[in-house]
Amino acid sequence: MILLLGATGFLGKRLARRLTAEGRPFVAVSKSLGTDLRDYAQFRRLFERHRDVDEILHAAAYVGGIKFGLAHPAEIFYNNALI
What we know:
The chain starts with a strand and ends with a helix. The chain has a 3-stranded parallel beta sheet with strand order 2-1-3, with helices on one face. Helix 1 links the parallel strand 1 and strand 2. Helix content is 46%, strand content 14%. By secondary structure, it is of the alpha/beta class.
């Protein structure tokens, strides 16, 4: 089983489509689907629920547009370090 982190983001959506097209089973995970990877308790529960994971595809990120990135570099770094 594959765990796809960031499954609803720019890259994650494309990975999900590819995995689906190849018939590979995966679990989609993202903040919009209910799991905030910055929250350690949620992160632990995720791995406790999915002990059958063989592979992890990590496409999760805290991002925004160019203007957001220029205005909030520390916030972006901090959140991505947590993820």
